[in-house]
Design a protein that fits this description.
Elements (H helix, E strand, L loop, with lengths): L7 H25 L7 E5 L5 H10 L6 H10 L7 E5 L5 H10 L4 E5 L6 H9 L30 E5 L4 H22 L10 H14 L6 H13 L7 H8 L40 H8 L8 E4 L5 E4 L2 H20 L1
Antiparallel strand pairs: 1-2, 3-4, 5-6
Length: 337
């Protein structure tokens, strides 16, 4: 009987089909197949082996094959980074191994508003359940972050890994403000008269920050206080009194600021003391800092609320009293309604 020869074209076709099937199986097993039915968070601790991690993933039904996971890890360079990972529904074993190799850890976004005091920022971080650790240093720890004062932190939107320590985030905010100061010093920018130091820049910026939420008004408010300082007039800034009354908290918690509060004995009370307070009364953003470094060119010496979230500015006390009377009318109308 004659031996049948398989045509060469058929052999090529066979191997192409076989390779395609293998490729499909590979893609399916590594890149598509997944036992995950709901989003999960998985944490890799420091020093854990690939085998131990694979076993935990398998037991938690995040993967359905330990050998496949190990192969996927090897295919991604054999590297696994510690941290918490958010693994979404339908994630394949290859995607998981890639996340671990890249250190694509679960993150959180924390918004720290401008104008908060250190006490308020620490309270904000203490309430966040995705951060770990205390906001205060342990006994005997001597680090810059252990001795924070208002004006040391830069309020911003921070994206950090879940499980970041609260002290680490506070230190990140401290370093960012330090970087802003260093950049200013390197720029050679001259501070406005009569300010003499970075502390005075941030101190005035903290008052401006607390006086107005409107970015467009900040350079004008800054000019008012700078003009008063030049004329040796007391600043008479309500936020400084609030800071003194609340012992550095910076929030009256709904209580009104009364006329009697304006007489409180404190170096921060700008109704009884001349010049700036000894230090900032809040942590400030870039808009407030820029407003102090680049104030508006005005002759204003007074301002009062206009009833619409802004202020009316005046060059003379007489004009200011008129604006004040207008504000009282607006305030009465609002209260009556």
């Amino acid at each position: 009987m004659k031996k049948r020869n398989i045509p060469r074209n058929n052999l090529i076709r066979f191997f192409c089909v076989f390779a395609a099937v293998l490729a499909f199986v590979f893609i399916f097993l590594f890149g598509i197949k997944s036992p995950i039915k709901r989003d999960v968070t998985f944490e890799i601790g420091r020093g854990e082996t690939v085998s131990a991690i694979a076993k935990q993933l398998y037991e938690n039904k995040i993967i359905d094959s330990i050998p496949l996971f190990k192969l996927a890890v090897r295919g991604n360079g054999g590297k696994i980074q510690t941290g918490k990972y958010d693994i979404s529904v339908g994630s394949s074993v290859w995607k998981i191994a890639r996340m671990f190799a890249d250190g694509d850890v679960a993150t959180i976004t924390i918004v720290v508003p401008e104008g908060l005091t250190v006490k308020q920022i620490k309270a904000l971080l203490a309430e966040n359940n995705f951060l770990i650790g205390d906001v205060e240093c342990g006994k005997g720890t001597v680090l810059p972050v252990c001795d924070l004062h208002d004006g040391d932190l830069f309020p911003d939107t921070y994206t950090v890994a879940k499980g970041t320590s609260r002290l680490a985030l506070l230190d990140l905010m401290r370093k960012k403000m330090q970087e802003i100061e260093n950049n200013w010093r390197r720029s050679g920018q001259i501070m406005p008269v009569p300010l003499k130091s970075w502390n005075e820049i941030i101190t005035l910026a903290s008052i401006v920050q607390k006086e107005t939420p409107k970015t467009s008004e900040m350079p004008i408010v800054s000019s008012v206080y700078l003009n008063r300082l030049k004329k040796n007039m007391r600043l008479q800034a309500d936020p400084t009194v609030v800071y003194a009354v609340t012992k550095g908290l910076g929030d009256m918690r709904g209580a009104p600021l009364l006329r009697g509060h304006l007489k409180i004995k404190s170096p921060y009370n700008t109704y009884i003391n001349y010049g700036l307070p000894p230090a900032p009364i809040a942590n400030v953003g870039m808009d407030a800092i820029k407003a102090v470094l680049q104030p508006a060119d005005t002759n204003y010496l007074f301002f009062v609320a206009d009833g619409n979230g802004g202020h009316k500015f005046a060059k003379s006390y007489k004009e200011h009293m008129k604006n004040h009377a207008d504000w009282r009318v607006i305030k009465k109308m609002k209260n009556d309604n």
